[in-house]
Structures are given as C-alpha cells and as structure tokens.
Amino acid sequence: MNTKLTRRRLQQLAIALPAPLALAALGHRTAGIAFAQSDDATATAEATAVGTPVLAPTPTCGDDDDFDVTLEQTEGPYYTPNTPERTSLLEDGITGTKLTVTGYVYSTDCQPIDKALIDFWHADDAGVYDNEGFRLRGHQFTDEDGRYDLETIVPGVYTGRTRHIHLKVQAPDQPVLTTQLYFPDEPENESDGIFDPSLVIDLVDDGVKGKLGFFTFVLDIA
User: How far apart, in whole angstroms, are the C-alpha atoms of residue 76 and residue 180?
Assistant: First the structure.
C-alpha cells in the first residue's frame, strides 16, 4: 500500500476531516467556519464559534515516506528586502477581504523546520504594490513545530496575472526557496503563464471574518 504523503495530500486530509478537525488543520483556529453543504457540519461549525480550542493534527510518516518539494517560481519585479518582522500585515488604511493563511514548513523527510524564515509580499485589493514602503510586506519565523500564521487581506488582481501572494522560504543556513501562492477557482488561473495548481491554497470561508487558507511548504535541505 502506498503511504506517501505529498504536500497536496496533506492538505486534502486536513480539508476532508470533520469540521472540528478541519478547523484544527487550518491553524488552531477557534472561530466558526461555514462548511455549508451539510446541516451537521454547519451545526458543528457554529458550535466551535463559542471558542472551543482545537489542536492541529501532526502529520506522521514512515521511514520510506517523503514529501514533494514545493515548486520554485519567479520572484517578480516587486520584491523589497529588509521587511519588518510581523505575523499581521493589517494596518490602518488597508481595505479588502481579511485572509489568514496558516500551515507548516517541512523537510522532504517529514520533519518540521524550526525557525524557518518566510517573507511575504503581495498587492493590495486594487492590485497595487507598495514599492516605497512595507505595506503588505513582512517576514516571520516558524515555531518548533514548523508552523506559521499570516494575517493579511486577499490580494487584488492586475492585468496579465491571476490573484497571488509572493514569498521566500528559507530554513536556517539553507538556500532560499522563492515561490508564489494562488487561489482556487480564479478565472485568471487558466490564462496566467506562471500559475501552477500545486501552489493553490486550500481556502474556506472563516465566517464573517473573511477567508482562511492552509498551505504546507516542503524544502529540500542538506
């Protein structure tokens, strides 16, 4: 029996879980998520809205299991170094749909990477980048479980590209992985020459709070 856990399979397992565990897989969240399509799921999601804590499931792998390495992609023209360290990119004057993206950074042999650097940047809800300051730009480090949390907004689109988030991921003393994250069911995905389905965030509605996404990065480290 093939027990290989790819990054996409890990995401599918999280989203396919019952509502409380799916909430857990999407980042230790306690807010309700509208899973619709099921009265029982909706009721369970409503129950979690009262704040019952849940824990994210930890992936388990056998000795012969490997994760697929996250695809590298172009940096693009709008990267700015030396961003501030922060887990929330929200600040006064930023409008748009709130988005929380959470997940892990793992090695190919299924080990969480502590203190991995993740540097995020993306356009505002009008599709415009701040190329003079650090608006909607910031970096953070994973915890001992390899976990990260980003609070931001859903980026806008601009001519020639689909909706996306840029980022760089680096394990301590290892090469930098530069890539992009994408959103499901975007009309521009099919026409975007850079888009790759392996980089799509698993996305659900987070009640009235906006969107909640899950993505696990896998690095090939020495």
Answer: 10
